[in-house]
Amino acid sequence: MSTRDSEKPSPKYKRIVLKLSGEVLRNTEDGEPISPTILTEICSEVKKVYDIGVQVGLVIGGGNIFRGLSGSELKGVDRTTGDYMGMLATVINGLAIMDCLEKMGVIVRLQSAIPMDKLAEPFIVRRATRHLERGRVVIFAGGTGNPYFSTDTCAALRASEIGADMLMKATKVDGIYDKDPAKHKDAVKYENLRYIDALREQLNVMDSTAFSLCMENAMPVLVFSMREPGSIYRAVMGETIGTRVDE
To answer: 15-246 belongs to which CATH class?
Structure first.
């Protein structure tokens, strides 16, 4: 019997999509887009839930390398071109995460919504589901393959397509607040929130398209802090952390 098949804790959520911002990979001290230390820490957290049998789909942003919308606003790049550049950045980040996880003994498949057969498999939902069932982490790169859609929307879409139990978004803060806690000391954290309220109050933790897609498909969302060690493990075990968004 393999290590993954031996006795292990029983997670509440068996299949998740984990959404990470590309910015979490950046070394804030020297500005390098991918910090080896941070990369290893994140992959170690993913491995913890992989080792207890959780099926993990992972969506990573590309903002540490290039962000389409800000690129079009600040760098004079056409929005459509900028979005494609951002999608390619997610593939770079996906390759880095795949390499790091594989060195830890995790079986990984990288799928891209933009065809690039030398680097990644094409995204095919049945193939992705089969990989998950066989105990492989699947990294969804290339966004949705279309401009004008964020990686939040990609995560909501992939979570719905593969029938995930929950979409988990790891951020720099420990949940959703009624206003920016970094600027307002009286900001109030929500423990639970309805989709419609998140949309009505324009809470910018996820964009409105992603929230709407989750609402239409009854996909629960958990927003929590990636800065707390063991947070992904605690989340899949059903502990109360962060902010849960559902019906």
So the answer is: alpha beta
